[in-house]
Each structure stands twice: as structure tokens, then as C-alpha cells.
Design a protein that fits this description.
Length: 356
């Protein structure tokens, strides 16, 4: 049986005998993107509802952080290095894209290592790397922080907004009005932290859990295992379906880097609010590289929260087409909320693949 036939067979079994609605959350924006791109929504029975979670790092980056980045970009002595996805995310009064159009020195980079190259190339400037992401990207950023310290590069700084998956998932699962039958956990986070990192979902909440990769067969297999468990045809609650990349305990080297460079503190998730112990921030040993400690941010504007339902989208309670702004006032060209900006944002993905 080839892969296509295997997928067709699994889809048939998934859709057979689904008595009542089965709600499955894919936490990660990369999964949402693959589900849309490969047409998985359309393969499934309408009784199987896929909802997205808060796993798009750009979408959950709070306005205060963007305001800080904008404020730094306005200084003559600073070069901002950032991933492209952040450029259009709105702060309170401006965004990086707008500042760049006004001539501010903002460079799009594809890897944090380029921030070191920039710092070496422009020794008379201060380079600030916008370090945004989850457990997946944090080890590489941590490694660059260590390298900058080892090499005594004193004109490179990191403005961090690094978040942890586990605390936000615990918050979602606390809400008992939210009926989730199964969760597809992000394979790339599990590569770092291990499949065991997500075991609390099934152990403490009796929710079916799979760790999945990002190919169509990976995702269909994840849905298959959850649905078949719901139907009572399979009986173990959590399953690592990404064994080709994910060990139960994760990547020891990457985890050591996280421990070496970061500590956990309360994190502000855009639209959602403060989630205890959900942020990774640079620890005391490396604080001379922490932009939040080095620069002052006295004149930041008062934050005005987004006037949209991004929160409910990020928590999987609504779908983008329920938003009154979707596709009219809010488009990828003119985003109102952060979920429309990123390639991993649920609203942006719906706009590209599923408009009704
Ligand atoms: Fe926010 Fe736009 Fe999505 Fe509405 S469509 S929830 S305004 S990002």
C-alpha cells in the first residue's frame, strides 16, 4: 500500500461511525498550515471538528513588546534584526514595517546567527535581535546568546519574547466549558522537550494526545489515533507518532542550553493576558545581553488592546470566519489582529485557504 492509499484507508476508517462531534485541537500553527494546505479539513466528516490553538509565536507576541521594538528602532545607534513575520505585527501606534518605510535600520534575518554577523560588521552600532518563539527556537537563540558572551561581542543584545507551551495548555485545559476530545501536539517542540513533556494532557485531563509530525500522513495518523480512541477502538491515551525525530525525553543538549541561559517568569500572551511561568527570559549570568535590562523604555505609549476576537481564535473557541472583520477590514495586507499577520496565524491561513 502506498502513502496515498494508506491515507485514503485511514480517512475512511476515521469517518466511519462517528456518532457525536469530536473536537481535536492542533496547537501549532505549522500543523494548521499543513492541514489547510493538504485539504485535510475537506477529507473529514463534519462531525470531526479541528480547532487551532495558541501555537503561533507571532500571534501571541504582546503589543508592549512590539512597542519596545519600535522604540528601539527609532534610535539612530541601533540596528534591529528580526524574522520577517514580525514586521507587520501592530504595536500601539506603529509597527516595524512602518518604521522601516520611514528609514529606520531594520534588517530581516533568517537565522539568529546573522545577528552576530551584523554586530561584527557594524561595530559602531548596537544590534538588537528580536528573539521571538517557543521551545523550538529558544535553544538556538540561547546558543547565540552564549556565543556572544564567549566572544565578548558587546554590541549585540536580545529583546526576548520566548514562550512555553505547557503553561498555556494547562490554562486552556482548566476551562471545563471548552470541550476538547483530543490534542495534536507539535512535533518540533517535542523534538526539544520530549514526548513526555505532553503526557500531562492525557494523565491529568483524560484527553487523547498524540505527538505528530507535519506531513499529511503524520497529521492523518494523529487524527486517526485520536478518533479511534474516542470510538473506543484503541485504548492508550497518548502516543508519540513522530518517533523518527522525537525521543521520549527530548534533546538533552538543547534542554541544557535552555537551562543555562533562561529562567521562567510570568508571560503576557497577546489577547489572552498573563500566564504564570510561561515566558523564558535571559538569566542574571547573561543579563548584559538582555535588551530589556540594558535600554530604557520610558516613553512607551499606553497599550490599547486589539478590538477583535483573536483571543477566542488563539484558544480554539472560535474560527476566523466568525470575526466581523475577517476578509473585509482585516486581510493579510491590512491586518487588524496578529492572527492575520503570520504565515502560521489561523486567520491568515483561513484567508488563504478557506474563506467561507
Ligand atoms: Fe483578529 Fe483579524 Fe482574526 Fe478578526 S480576522 S480575529 S481581527 S486577526
Amino acid at each position: 500500500m502506498n502513502e496515498k492509499q494508506l491515507i485514503a484507508r485511514m480517512v475512511q476508517e476515521i469517518n466511519e461511525g462517528v456518532g457525536s462531534d469530536i473536537v481535536i485541537m492542533e496547537i501549532c500553527g505549522t500543523h494548521t498550515g499543513s492541514i489547510a494546505k493538504y485539504g485535510i479539513w475537506d477529507m473529514l466528516s463534519p462531525r470531526i471538528k479541528l480547532v487551532s490553538g495558541p501555537g503561533c509565536p507571532v500571534c501571541v507576541t504582546d503589543k508592549r513588546y512590539i512597542d519596545m521594538a519600535v522604540s528601539l528602532s527609532q534610535r539612530e545607534d541601533i540596528i534591529i534584526a528580526t524574522f520577517g513575520d514580525l514586521m507587520k505585527v501592530t504595536g500601539t501606534e506603529s509597527c516595524l514595517s512602518e518604521e522601516k518605510s520611514k528609514g529606520k535600520d531594520i534588517r530581516i534575518v533568517y537565522s539568529p546567527i546573522q545577528s552576530i554577523e551584523l554586530a561584527k560588521e557594524y561595530p559602531s552600532k548596537k544590534v538588537v535581535f528580536l528573539a521571538v518563539g517557543f521551545e523550538t527556537t529558544a535553544p538556538l537563540i540561547g546558543k547565540i546568546v552564549m556565543k556572544a558572551k564567549e566572544e565578548n561581542i558587546n554590541n549585540l543584545f536580545f529583546l526576548t519574547s520566548l514562550k512555553l507551551m505547557k503553561p498555556i495548555l494547562k490554562e486552556i485545559l482548566k476551562d471545563k466549558t471548552h470541550c476538547i476530545d483530543g490534542i495534536i501536539c507539535p512535533g518540533h517542540v517535542a523534538v526539544i522537550k520530549g514526548a513526555d513533556y505532553f503526557s500531562f494532557i492525557s494523565n491529568d485531563n483524560n484527553i487523547k494526545t498524540v505527538v505528530s509530525g507535519f506531513e499529511p500522513l503524520d497529521i492523518i495518523s494523529g487524527i486517526y489515533f485520536i478518533v479511534q480512541q474516542c470510538k473506543g477502538k484503541i485504548h492508550n491515551h497518548d502516543k508519540n507518532l513522530y518517533k523518527r525525530c522525537v525521543k521520549e525525553k527530548g534533546n538533552e543538549t538543547a534542554c541544557k542550553i535552555l537551562e543555562e541561559v533562561f529562567v521562567h517568569e510570568d508571560g503576557n500572551w497577546r489577547g489572552i493576558g498573563i500566564i504564570p511561568d510561561s515566558a523564558m527570559v535571559i538569566n542574571k549570568k547573561y543579563e548584559t545581553l538582555d535588551a530589556k535590562k540594558v535600554f530604557s523604555f520610558d516613553n512607551l505609549p499606553k497599550v490599547i488592546e486589539d478590538n477583535c476576537i483573536c483571543k477566542d481564535i488563539l484558544l480554539g473557541k472560535e474560527i476566523p470566519t466568525s470575526c466581523r472583520f475577517f476578509g473585509n477590514k482585516c486581510t493579510p495586507q491590512h491586518p487588524v489582529g496578529p492572527c492575520m499577520v503570520s504565515s502560521e496565524g489561523t486567520c491568515g491561513i483561513y484567508y488563504r485557504y478557506r474563506k467561507e
